[in-house]
Amino acid sequence: MPSAPSSAVEIDIPEVKSDLEAVFARYEAALVTNDVATLDALFFDASSTIRYGENENLYGFAEIAAFRARRSPLFLGRKLERTVITTFGRDYGVASTLYRRESATGRLGRQSQTWVRFPDGWKIVAAHVSAIDDPATVGS
C-alpha cells in the first residue's frame, strides 16, 4: 500500500469519497444520455480546463462545451469496468475507469478525470479519454 504524502493529506475520507462517487455517477448518466447541460455544469468553467479525447485536444471550457454541443448523441452507451475513485483531502480527487462500447468491438476505452471541489460543487479540471485494442480480444 502506498504511503500517505508527507503533509498528512487524508486519503479516501468516507463522506468525501461517497460525494465524489455520486457526482461521478451523475456525470456517467449525463454522458450516456447526452445531457449536455449537466456535462457542462460538471466541467470547471476556466481557460485552464483541459480535455484530451480520442480524436481531439480541447483547451479551455469554451472548446469543451463546443465539442459537447456538436457531438453525435448516437452510440453513447458503455459499460464501465475497474472504476477507481480516490480522494485526497476534502477537495481533490481522481476518477479512472475502463469502458467498453458495443459500437466499438475490440476496443477498450480508458478515462481519467481530475476533480476539484469548489464552493459550487465538484468540477472536472482535467480529463483524458483514449482507447486501445482490447487485450482480451487481441489474437483471438
CATH topology: Nuclear Transport Factor 2, Chain: A
Instruction: State the low-pLDDT regions, or none.
Output: none
Main sheet?
6 strands, mixed
Radius of gyration: 16 Å
Protein name: DUF4440 domain-containing protein
Organism: Pseudoxanthobacter soli DSM 19599
Write the layout of secondary structure elements.
Blueprint: H1 14-33, H2 36-41, E1 50-52, E2 57-59, H3 61-70, E3 79-88, E4 92-100, E5 107-118, E6 121-133
Parallel strand pairs: 1-6
Antiparallel strand pairs: 1-2, 3-4, 4-5, 5-6
Could you describe the 3D structure shown?
The protein contains 3 helices and 6 strands. The chain has one domain: Nuclear Transport Factor 2, Chain: A. With 140 residues, the chain is of the alpha+beta class. 16% of the residues are buried. Helix content is 26%, strand content 36%. It has a 6-stranded mixed sheet, covered by helices on one side.
Supply database-style keywords.
Nuclear Transport Factor 2, Chain: A, 6 strands, alpha+beta, globular, 140 residues
Summary of the model, kept short:
With 140 residues, this protein is of the alpha+beta class. The protein has 3 helices and 6 strands; from the N terminus they run ααββαββββ.
